[in-house]
Design goal:
- The complex is a heterodimer of chains A (109) and B (122).
- Chain A has 109 residues and is mainly beta.
- Chain A has no helices and ten strands.
- In chain A, strands 2, 4, 5, 8, 9 and 10 form a six-stranded mixed β-sheet that branches.
- In chain A, a hairpin with a 7-residue loop joins strand 8 and strand 9.
- Classes of the chains: A mainly beta (109), B mainly beta (122).
- The interface between A and B is medium-sized, with 28 and 24 residues.
Chain lengths: 109, 122
């Protein structure tokens, strides 16, 4: 079982805003990072830390944290955002072990 | 360009051994942790373990401890994932990823390999 819990599937209308959440007690201590994975491709980081975007990631992607919940928000979702999204953080042991959430499949309608 | 390049796809039989690789380019390989991540067909990402090539300090997920061995050769900037006796349930895509440590509370797997598909079938 995963220390991090995600909704299996979320949908959003084109151009609308969607929030993907990740819950886990370890998130009270460690920030989550978020990875986008499209079919047949390796994961790509979209958000890490408090709200950091790697170079090349559109600013419609943002991150936040409240208590034991981390969130990835896409403001103005585009068709190309349709993908699986995974959160990741150190596990509850904090001993240089990490865990992924189960993933959320985002459908853009 | 900073990149991780993994070895090619493998087709093996149950009980066979296997070692796949992940070579780093464009950065000081020995100074960054490298993790291995499993993705079974149609399933999510699973964190397997991590190694620091500088001193070979290695940590495993409890789910994978004893099932695989992670190693590294810093002289050739390469990390490895190996099995001594494969099972059909080891069929999966395996990714390596570099860890970027910002602080005690902030880190990210910023660079990923292209993945190595391992198929185990009799």
């Amino acid at each position: 079982s995963s220390d991090l819990t995600q909704d299996p599937a979320v949908s959003v209308a084109l151009g609308q805003t969607v929030r993907i959440t990740c819950q886990g007690d370890n998130l009270r201590t460690y920030y989550a990072s978020w990875y986008q994975q499209k079919p047949g491709q390796a994961p790509v980081v979209v958000i890490y830390g408090k709200n950091n975007r790697p170079s090349g990631i559109p600013d419609r992607f943002s991150g936040s944290r409240s208590g034991n919940t981390a969130s990835l928000t896409i403001t103005g979702a585009q068709a190309e955002d349709e993908a699986d999204y995974y959160c990741n953080s150190r596990d509850s042991s904090g001993n240089r072990r990490w865990v992924f959430g189960g993933g959320t499949k985002l459908t853009v309608l | 360009e900073v990149q991780l390049v993994q070895s090619g796809a493998e087709v093996k039989k149950p009980g066979e051994s296997l070692k796949i690789s992940c070579e780093g380019f464009g950065y000081s390989f020995r100074n960054y942790w490298i993790a291995w991540v499993r993705q079974m067909p149609g399933k999510g990402l699973e964190w397997m373990g991590i190694i620091y090539p500088g001193d070979s300090d290695t940590r495993y997920s409890p789910s994978f401890q004893g099932q695989v061995t992670i190693s590294a050769d810093k002289s050739i900037s390469t990390a490895y994932l190996q099995w001594s006796s494969l099972k059909a349930s080891d069929t999966a895509m395996y990714y390596c990823a570099r860890l970027l440590d910002y602080s005690t509370w902030v880190d990210v797997f910023d660079i990923w390999g292209q993945g190595t598909m391992v198929s185990v079938s009799s």
